[in-house]
């Protein structure tokens, strides 16, 4: 049987390991990375480019960067597709979590080219899906954006 003291020491050691990680290794989703404002959202959908990385439709708009925030996202789950608010909120959490784990894919390109990116992720599947499917679509979407930015097809 594992003693309480052993568990306490393991938790302390784990927290210390988290505190000693580099900033690039930490996964976070700050408030500044959330896209807000009606005018900005309208301009994203009006002027942005889009593609589908199933189960997500991605709309993005690249601008020249002037501050340290390099990307802002918006997550939308249409009520037409998923009726229950509880299920819509769960899908939003899964998409945000998937972005949080995979946003490092874009960091190199955004920092080198001084690009600020606004991205909208719209869920297009009619039923709930698991995290693995969402993460696969997220990786595909972020890789596609990276390729488009590198090739100059903004």
Report on the architecture of this protein.
The protein is an alpha+beta fold. It has a single domain (25-150), classed as 2-Layer Sandwich (Ribosomal Protein S5, domain 2), CATH 3.30.230. The chain contains five helices and four strands. It has a four-stranded mixed sheet, with helices on both faces. Helix 3 crosses helix 5. The protein is globular, with a radius of gyration of 18 Å.
Q: Can you summarize this structure?
A:
The protein is α+β, with helices and mostly antiparallel strands and 154 residues long. Helix content is 48%, strand content 19%. The protein has a single domain, classed as Ribosomal Protein S5, domain 2.
Key descriptive features of the protein:
Ribosomal Protein S5, domain 2, 4 strands, 5 helices, 4-stranded mixed sheet, alpha+beta, 154 residues, single chain
Residue-averaged pLDDT, rounded? Answer: 85
Q: What is the helix tally? A: 5
Low-confidence stretches: 6-22
Helix content: 40-55%
Structural class: alpha+beta
Note the main sheet.
Answer: 4 strands, mixed
How far the N terminus sits from the C terminus, by CA atoms, comes to 58 Å
Indicate the topology:
Elements: H1 4-19, H2 38-47, E1 49-53, E2 56-64, E3 71-76, H3 85-102, H4 104-113, E4 115-123, H5 131-150
Helix pairs in contact: 3-5
